[in-house]
Every structure is written in structure tokens, then in C-alpha cells.
Design goal:
The chain has 638 residues and is mainly alpha-helical. It has one domain. Helix content is 83%, strand content 0%. It is built from 18 helices and no strands. The longest helix has 71 residues.
Amino acid sequence: MELIQFFATSIFSVALASILVALVFGFLIWRRPQAEGFAYHTSKRILDGVHIFLHLENKVVASFVVVIFLITGFLLQWEFAFSFLVGSIITALGSYLGWRLIALPMNRSIESFKSNLPEAFRFSLRAGKANSFLLSGLSLGAIALLLLIFRDPSLIIGYAFGTALVAFFAHLTGGFFSAVADRSEGHAIKKENHNIAKEIDEVGDFVGDVLGPNTDFFETFSLAILLAAIVATKSVSLEAYGWNAVWFPLAIVALQLLGNFIGFLFVRSPKKTTTPTSLSKIFLGSFLLSALLVIVSSVYFVDFFFGDFRLVIVIIIAYLATIFSFLFIEYASLPKQNKKYEADQLILLGFKNAISNGVIWILVIVAAAYAAYAFLNLYGLAILALIFAGVYQSTLLLQGFGASADVSSDIALRLPNCTVNLQANAHFLDRFGALAKGGSRSIALASAFLVTLTLLILYFQNFQNIPSFSAEIFALSDFRVLFGIGGGILISGIFGASILNKVLAGEIMLDQILSHKVSITDFNKSVEMLSKKMINNVGRLAFLILLPPIFIFFFWGPSVLSGYLVGIIGTAFLLATVLILAGLLWEHQKKNIAKENDAEKIADALGDAFKDAIGPAFNNFLKLSLLLGLVIFQLWQS
């Protein structure tokens, strides 16, 4: 009991410190004076646009949350329903507060663009730090508190399900809106609509590059911590360690937060001669310092509490895999040649790059998963997923920094008295922001794959503990399993095609809005119309994910569902990898293509749709589908 109190006290202290650090960074930005005139009014309209989007989204999400809360409460357990409700609320609240921190530099860094580029960089960097530490502290503290209340990680899997549901809506609606809004200027036929189109684009940057990724991180981070704790309670080899093994994952996360905080102190603003492609070098040193602190500290923890140093080996493997993942994807998505392309050449270049480099990346992630499982079985795989989720916290800083820098520089470039020096500084920071947002995609996808792989194996093990299912839950010789695999592949394909159709439908609506003269007073109405379209589309997609697993399990049994989940995890992971890699290359390649070239327009359209909407959507599709399998098992067991 004393050891548990020590763990809990330490973890709560780190969680609280993380939230306080976020508030300090936010205060350092907030205390700076706001810009006046054009910058102030533009910032206010953008904030109003985001609030309109959130109001509409929250109404739809709330209806789903209330229905699921009542169903799970009456049919399953009220503990599950309560933790589900807590997970839903805290995910939405944390994402909103994090976005407000990201938005702080929007009209406070304008003066810095004129003469002090490092200061403008620091504004966005502090916002990114504040956002990542706030979300991490809230997630870690909430899970630790629920563990102390319920004393059983399996009872609070509802918390993860709540975060997954909110993340599904926020990430997909934000991604849809962002993919459509990124091309809004191309739809603004009338010159007077260009500013309105740009502001819709900036609303898209916030909802697609901040609110969506915030909830996705919160979901992955929470799910990784909970899965490691659940596996610890079910592992026979860890029974001797009791609650030490349950709280050890939370201790690792606390160490990662401390390491990231120390590492982030060494991140410095770039010089004006620094190229945006060297962004990784600016953050790599701080990341290595953070990894070294976690590895050294974990040696002490393992020696003191477990005595099994295979855990340290798994942690080292995890950090090596994350470093490779981040750097390799950044390299793979950079433009290869500085020349003009025809449209068909550009499409083939994107897919060729995505397939060839994606295979290498997937093999490395799978090899790391296999090594972790070989060392410590499912607990090793859960710890690997946990380390990736912790590194996701580092890349969330890049995501937040990128969105903040993007919006701030866009406003600065549209100032009526924009000087040549201000333009150069704003363009420089904008290029940094664009690359920063892309660099976190690989860690997010790898984290999603690892937690869903852990969920899949946990699903198998749950049924293997029941004698009547132990020999038939997943056998490729069983036609029911093969039928389920085919169903998973089919649903994954339908899901991807549906997303592409929704993005196209949104672009058609945006074209209709901006092809006419839009006044300032109509800006809110334009955002509302586009938001409703995107949110209603995602609401229909939610049924495509939630209903098939329930129907399959209760009509055809767990064997068919096991095949269905395998089909989903294989197909969705492969599709997400190819789409995100291709989208990133098209996004960066378009900067080397002359304007008015058809290839540039195609690169812009495909890059935005693939990297912002379709590819990341498969992350949430994976996690929600596999998590639903575990929830269904608990429902059936009760």
C-alpha cells in the first residue's frame, strides 16, 4: 500500500506540474499586448468561426454520448458508463483548452514579424508546448484518479471508449473541414471574397490541425496507458509484482513528461539562414535528451520494483523505432526533384514514393512490435505502444507550433502595411509551420497501429480464457474467420471511399458559397453551412463503424468478429500509410511546381485530402473499431 501511495503521489504531482507548466507558457503569451485594427478583427472572426464549428459538433457528439451512456449503464456496468462519460467530457474540454492556448499568439506576434523573427518563433513554440503539456497532464491525472477509485483497469476501459468516440468526431470533422478549407482561395472567384476564403482556411487550420489532433492524441495517450495497466492485471508472469506492474506504465509516462520538459528547454529559435527542412535537427537534440533521461530512470525503476531488465530493452527498442519513424517519414515526404510535372506524373510519383517507403517503414514498426512481444509478451507490446504514445506528446508540440505559426503568419501577410521584411519573416515561419504539422503524422499512425494491435491480441486472449472458445476464436482454416476478414476489408474500403465523397461534397458547397459575393456578416453563416455539412457526414460514418461489429458478434459469433477486426487492422493501416505518405509528398512537391500548372492544383487537392482527411481518419477508424471489440466482449460477459 505504501508503494502504491508513492506511485500515486508522484504521478499526480507530475500531472499537476504538467498542467501548471502549460498555464505558465500560456501566461507568457497572454501578457503580451494584442494587435489592433485589421489583425484584431481578423483574429476575432476566426475565433468566432471556430466556436460556431464547436457548437454544432458538440451537439451531435453529446447526443451519441448520452445514448451510449444510458445503454452501457443499464446493459453493462454503471462504472463503465461513468468512466465513459468522464472520458468524453475531459477529452472535449482538454482539446478546447489546448486550442485556446494555440490561438493566443494569433494577434500577439504580429509586431514580432516586422523585426524579431526569433520572438515570433518563440510565441508559436510556447503555444505548442502549453498545448501538449496541458493534454498530457489532464490525461495522466484523470487515469490515475480513476485507478484509485475503481482499483480495476478493466472497469475504466469505458474512459478510453469515451475518448475514442469524441476523437472520432473531432478528428474526422476537423480533417474534412480543413481539407476543404485549404483550397478555399481557389473557389473565391470574386476578388473581394479572397479575405473571407483565407479566414475560412484559417478556421480549418484550427479545427483540423489543432482540435482534431488534440483529441486523437488524448485518445491514443489514454488508451496506451490503460492497455498497459489492463495487460498487467491479466498477465500470469506479472502476478508476483501485483499493483507495481499496473502503476509502472503511469510512472513511465510521468518520466516521459519530465524528460520532454527538460528537453524542450533546449529548443532554440532558428536563425534566418536556417532552412525549414532542418526542423528535425532543432528538435532532435531535445528529444534524444528526453529519451536518455527516461531510459536511465527506467533502469532504476525496473531494478527496484521488477528486477527484469527486459523492460529496459523494450524501452530502448521503442525509442530507436520512434527516432527512425520520425526522421524517415520526414525524408520520404520531401520533394525529390525541383522540376515541373504533368498531372499524371505527379500522381504516379506520390504513390510510388508512398508504396516503396511505406513498406520499409511498416517493416520497421512491425519488427519493433515483434521484438517487444518476444521479450515480454503482450506487456512488452503494451509498453512499446506506451512509449510511442509518449513520443506523440513531443510531436504534438510540433503540430501545435505548426498550426499557430501558420495562422499567425497568414494574418501578418495580409496586413495592409505589410513590408518586404515582414513578408520574408512570415513566409519563413509559415514554411516551418507546414513541415512541423507533417512531421507528426508518422508517430500518430504508428501509435494507433500499436495500440490497436495490443487491443486485438487482448481480444483473442479474453476468449482463450473461456474453454468453449479457446480452440476456435481465430483459425484461418475456419471459413467464418475468412468471412470476417473479407468483411473487415470491405468496410475499410467503403469507409475510405465515403470520406473522399464527403470531402468532394464539401468542396462543391464551398464553391457555391464563395462563387458569390460574401460580406463580412456572411462569414459566420458560411462557416456554419460548411460545418453542418461536414458534421452530419461524420455522424453517418459513425454508424458504419459502430453497428457492424455489434451485428457480427451477436449474429455470427466472436470468430467472425475476430476475422473482421484482423481485416480492419491490416487494411486500414496499409491504406493510412500509403495515403498519408503520398499526401505529404504532394503537399511539399507543389511548392516546386510553377503556379497555374494543373499538376500544382492536383498536388494541392490530393495532398490536403489524403494527409488531412482520409489518412488520419483511418487512425480513429482503427482505434474505435478495435476498442469496440473489447467493449462488446465485456457486454457479452456481463
